[in-house]
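@channel sequence for tomorrow's demo:
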Amino acid sequence: MANNYPELAGSYSMDEYVRDHRNLFINARARGKRGKSRFMLTAKKPLAVFDVDHSAAGVMESTAFKELAADMGFTNDDIRVFPFYYDPALQPECKAQWDAFQDQYVACMQGDYFASIGIDTQDELLQMQRSAWFGMDSVMPVEYKNPNAEFRNLFKLYHKYGKNLIVTTKMGKEYVNKGAKGEWTGGYVPKGFDELEEYLSEVCVELYTCHTGEQNEDGNLVEVFAMQIDKCRVGLGPELVGNVVEQSNVITFPHLAEMIFPDSNVEDWY
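structure tokens (generated this afternoon):
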């Protein structure tokens, strides 16, 4: 059925809206040294990295990452790093750092220069924000209403400005409450802002390492990076959930983006 809609400022046809919003908001979670910073650094360039965890520099200087960067055709000059340091015991310092983050993050979102923005890691960023608001004080849950809204709204800028947003999240041991210390279930859960996992991000992947079954020359099992897609609500969407990739050289932002949007090419996301 044809519809002759009036010209309404700020409105799009659905085809136009989908075509003009070919960007991704990915939450990459992992335990330590499983490749989450590496994955984030492969996002489409130019890339702004908000480094609160201070892992990115070590990754960028590694031989393996330099080889990957050469294959993908980018250099360190294509990445701009915004480092942040905070001590939860020093609330004024935390507030100054948090205010600086908000100013720089919004400027990168609004500007035309960066194609992608990375936050490494969001759980450290959340701790910096909480320390800016409350220092070391214990507060009632109701007191988190305003800081939660502030944190949430920063992520929602993704929808307004059309940048790719790649957020890394650390994972910690999952405990059940049995006794004073609790009992480890044997599993791991994401740290940080709960809404990021369930509501805000479009794609969630878990990065980990696994053994190929092969042995190296020292007789040790070869270990490789792996990635599982746990959530996807854009592109192919649920069809991709549960997919596992075990080739380290394709556990990158461009290859994942091509999986999500199969009518695109890997090079479109460089």
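heads up for whoever presents: The two ends are 39 Å apart (CA to CA).
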